[in-house]
């Protein structure tokens, strides 16, 4: 079951001009942290002292359920912010799925700057709106879609968020178990569904299935019911 959460993950926006430059200028002086795969950026219950921007790799943002299971809420990719919130402690955990790099900026400083920097405030507002839209989409995915619809929708989302314009290949910089925890499926179902999509000619798996080439985007959109 998908857990309710505060705005911990904020998707990066392809903004230009003042709103983009403002945050970039602040982050240029932020501390850099390099993370190993499975290393945590922060854990649920930690004091919320910093906001982080993903520079390299992929970060899984997740909620630990009462029975100990993990529900991934989203993946954060380069350009995305994680650790935003309105209370004093993190309500979610953030863990690198692969070797990653983040920049850390004091949360209080960022919030103070946003009070007088309209460009930065606008960027954060846009990003929060995108996150809310993504959360609603995930609720539909987990609650209503079939396995093939879920995997197809995930691949499309990954393509939109990470692939350069015009590129047909995406990197799966996360384990099958991570994808399963996001989509509410078993690892075996994720693997079988990827194989099925390949056999249908919709995708091709490259480099030991760590890269996916989208061979038939219209068909993938149809399968995702988008």
UniProtKB/TrEMBL annotation:
The keyword Ligase is assigned to this record: no
Sequence ranges assigned to domain HTH crp-type in this UniProt record: 145-216
InterPro entries for this protein: cNMP-bd_dom, cNMP-bd_dom_sf, Env_Response_Regulators, HTH_CRP, RmlC-like_jellyroll, WH-like_DNA-bd_sf, WH_DNA-bd_sf
Example of a GO cellular component annotation carried by this entry: cytosol
Keyword terms, alphabetized: DNA-binding, Transcription, Transcription regulation
Keyword match DNA-binding: yes
Positions of region (Disordered): 1-23
MF terms (GO), sorted A to Z: DNA binding; DNA-binding transcription factor activity
Protein name, per record: Helix-turn-helix domain-containing protein
Organism: Hyphomicrobium album
